[in-house]
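ok new one. same drill as before - structure tokens go in, u give me an amino acid for every spot. 118 of them this time. try not to just spam alanines like last time pls lmao
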């Protein structure tokens, strides 16, 4: 098994932190834009994650990606409920939106403290 020489990796710059803050900001604002900002953030998450070497940054990218996909899954699953019975569907979508915001804000706060998202 080969060992990784961590000295070969570039140190994190303030620009890298700024990108992560912008991505979290896009995810937090996404429920208020019908998740269009989340799609933009997801594209950047996938691109930046493939170039990342820092485990904490990779964990945050994975966290944002999984949060998005789980929210989308639950929105699709509850969509028939929304169509057939409007009030329970609206309640379900509200709960999903609150859960999405909770996960994004929690991850953002943990990133701000330089901790892993979980």
């Amino acid at each position: 098994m080969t060992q990784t020489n961590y000295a070969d990796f570039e140190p994190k710059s303030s620009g890298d932190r700024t990108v992560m803050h912008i991505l979290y900001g896009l995810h937090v604002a996404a429920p208020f834009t019908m998740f269009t900002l989340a799609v933009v953030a997801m594209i950047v998450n996938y691109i930046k994650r493939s170039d990342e070497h820092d485990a904490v940054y990779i964990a945050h990218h994975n966290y944002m990606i999984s949060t998005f996909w789980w929210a989308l899954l639950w929105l699709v699953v509850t969509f028939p409920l929304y169509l057939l019975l409007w009030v329970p569907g609206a309640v379900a979508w509200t709960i999903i939106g609150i859960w999405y915001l909770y996960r994004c804000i929690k991850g953002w706060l943990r990133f701000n403290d330089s901790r892993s998202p979980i």
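The two ends are 28 Å apart (CA to CA). and btw The longest helix spans residues 55-84.
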